[in-house]
Amino acid sequence: MKRILSAFAVLAFVMPALAQEDYNFGELSLGILQKDFDTNSSKFLEYRDIPQGPVAPLVSLSGKKGDLRWGIRSRDVTQKDQRHAAFVDNGSVPFDASYVGIPHNFGNGGKSILSPTTDTSWRIADSTQAYYQGIIDATPGPAVNYTFLSNLVAPGLDAAPANVDLKLLRGRTNLAFSLTPKDSDFDLGISYGHERRSGTRAAAGTAFGFGNVVETPEPVRYITQDLAINASYRGSWGVARAAVLFNDFHNAFDTFSFDNPFRATDGTDGRAYVAPGAASKNGAAFGVMALPPDNKATMETVGATVKLGKKTRLTADLTLGQLRQNQDPLLAWTTNTAILTPDGRPATTAPLPATTLDGKIDTTAFNVFLNTRPTDLLTLNARYRRYDHDNKTPRYELRDGYVRFDAVWEEIPRITVPYGYTSDLFDAYATLGKGAFAVEAGYKYNRVARTFREAEHTSENVFRVAADYRGDWVVLRGLGEFGNRDHSDYHAVEAEEHSFLGGGLPANQTVLRRFDQANRDLTRVGGTIEVAPGSGKLMLMASYLHTKFKYDQAPVACEDVALFPGESAFCPGGQQRPLGLIDDSYDTFTVEANLTPSARASLYAFYTWEDGDMLQNGRQSGGTLNFNPNDVWTANITHKGNSFGAGADFTLKPEKCFLNLFGRYQKLNGNNDVSLLPSYSASTYGGDPLLRQCTSPGTTPCSIGEFDDTELTSVWGSLKYQIAKQWTASAGVGYEDYSIRDSQTGSGVYYLPASFFLQADNRDYQAWVGYVRLSYSWQ
User: Fold this and answer.
1) CA distance linking residue 425 with residue 543, whole number of Å
2) Cα 43 from chain centre
3) CA gap 257, 335 in Å, rounded
4) Cystine design at 227: which of 246, 264, 529, 716 (Cβ 3.0–4.6 Å)?
5) What is the maximal distance between C-alpha atoms in the chain?
6) Which pairs from 267-272 meet CB under 8 Å and 24+ separation?
7) Is 251 helix (H, G, I), strand (E, B) or coil?
8) Can you tell me whether residue 127 is helix, strand or coil?
């Protein structure tokens, strides 16, 4: 392992470290922060911490005595996003340590009809739960609709405090030690990483059926540890290396439980998965979800770089990995005591096909890279990479069926599916250049073989060309990539069938082509120009990149259409246009400018334009597949962005007074245009409410204008003054204005059809931040 300091430590101590004589250096900065913002949005402090009051922005100590160097540097020590770095180096045994705090604030002031009783349990009062069930049971089925349920829970939701904050804190510690004997070609290194995550985030999967989803805060108490041992040996022939990595993930909580607001007692029937509603009022009184399980991983690596003559290098690495997950017990079939297995046993205590997962995945990664320069004009590079993700987790048969949404036993035999894949990548390119000119041509081939998927494998071929010109005051580069991806025989129903033990009707569209396997063409072109005319005081850069994936729209087989009476008429010749992605393109243009008119002033500005455009189609179906082409919808999703900013750094008085200014404005505009045919039969096939609305006269296409529209304005200014040789005073002020307009994020409703939402605030805000700071340094 080479003797290096961490990048953070180098930046912190580079100036005193350059001195050859012994030294001691220190710096202490204290200040006061003030902030003010107009909403409870978490976006303002999403990934940062700005306290109100005294702060310690910087504490730094470093020194050198003989061969021994050392240093400690701490930033923002009173804040959750604090950072610390330290090192000790005696010339042959360096040691580095660091800690970084990373806050994640997902949303503030959320509201729930449930309340926490423990870290892993959210409940509703038994009396309230029984009251809701009694009212629903006494109401005729057709009257149990969204309006009725919304009015039922509204008083409880209105009275609930808006005190659910979704946030967690990551604390990441890294230690690194290496042994480099003097005059030795052998290096040994040991590193250790520890990360703790603590807090909550919005949970997914807390559902009692299609018409009863309850969003709750998922508790997070993770500890991830990494231990790596690596060694290398250098010789005149090259370098050999080896390493071993151990990873351990531990979750303090195995499960999370939550009440069903509408049921105080367990009940079941054949339609309970759509309760509460006209079809059923049954379901479980509470549910349990599994949290991320404990797991371990080990990886072993060997490799070498070998010199083959003066102008050729061959590098090869082999990495083996073993991923294991078998510590946490599997959950019971259900929490619903009313559900019985087909042989009459309570499903809550019926034996499972296994008690633990016995999850096993072995990975193999092999890389080889060849670089050679046969002439001064020509450079050749070739690379091959194979990655095998071999999932050896046992397949478990659920021969008698399974429980759906803790609501009903479904006598549908299923089997678990351990997905895996193997990727082979070959990349070769040649560079021919003389003087200021260089051209490059290359080819890339990527074959991905998948298990239990629709296509056995896909193959992608990409050709690329590039050209460079480097003059005295201008640099030009252009590139182009053109390729296509094809799959082997595509069987749309195969992936679905792999999870069933018996036959049955397909539930997914059989003319769908999934985006990661569908045939497609790739076009990518772009270029960059950098200009620094005259004295070099002005520098300009502009770049443009266009990427487009065009998916094959040739007719595909209507697999299993004959199983659906009457639907064959919609597939003349047994073929239809495929469903899925049609086009996916992205364009970006950037221009930057830097101007240094004098030694006391530096100005810069930038502008970026982005345009994303995705077109896809689908077809609405109800309980059985629908092949009617009149019921195909298309969605054209676009994202357009404009971002520009400017800044200036001024030396108002040499070695005394400095002023920094910066401003930025960014606006992103998203849109989703949904188009339907005039004969679209959404009402017949249970179309969703948006599509039904779009079938109204004069509403096609139906545009969702508020589709992730965001706007951010920020300005910042700071002033620093050198009071004396060792004393510096500084002050700064900043302003931010953020807004979001989105059809989902912007909603403040806590109960919508089929869902209770926490609606934690992560929306608009306006905020001011100011600080004053006094720094003292010594040596």
Assistant:
1) 28
2) 17
3) 10
4) 246
5) 90
6) 267/336, 267/338, 268/336, 268/338, 268/339, 268/407, 268/408, 268/409, 269/408, 270/408, 271/408, 272/209, 272/405, 272/407, 272/408
7) strand
8) helix
Q: In sequence order, what are the beta bridge partners of 640? A: 611, 669
Provide the pLDDT for residue 703.
83
Report yes or no: 508 and 580 within 8 Å, Cβ to Cβ.
no
Residue with tokens 């595509």: 490
Distance CA 108, CA 39 (A): 10
- What angle do the packed helices 126-137 and 146-159 form, to 10 degrees? 160
For residue 417, the 8-state DSSP code is -
Distance between CA 128 and CA 482 in Å, rounded?
Answer: 63
Which residues fall within 8 angstroms of residue 707, CB to CB, at 6 or more apart? Answer: 637, 670, 671, 672, 742, 743
CA–CA separation, 572 and 198 (whole Å): 58
The two structure tokens encoding residue 289: 């979800």
Tokens (6 digits) for 565: 């009476």
Contact 171, 101 (CB under 8 A): yes
Three-state secondary structure string covering 344-382? CCECCCCCCCCCECCEEEEEEEEEEEEEECCCCCEEEEE
Which stretches of the chain score pLDDT less than 70? 1-20, 204-205, 678-701
Note the pLDDT of residue 11: 40
Calpha distance 29→60 (Å, rounded):
9
Instruction: Round to whole Å and give the CA distance between 27 and 720.
Output: 16
pTM greater than 0.85: yes
First to last CA, the chain: 32
* Whether the Cβ atoms of residue 69 and residue 17 lie closer than 8 Å to each other: yes
* Rounded-to-integer distance, Cα 339 and Cα 283, Å: 9
Closest listed residue to residue 404, CA positions, set 394, 414, 419: 414
Strand order across the 286-290 sheet:
115-118, 121-123, 255-259, 286-290
Q: What is the DSSP letter of 761?
A: B
573-617, pLDDT tens digit by residue? 999 999 999 999 999 999 999 999 999 999 999 999 999 999 999
Answer for the pair 287, 208: CB distance below 8 angstroms, yes or no: yes
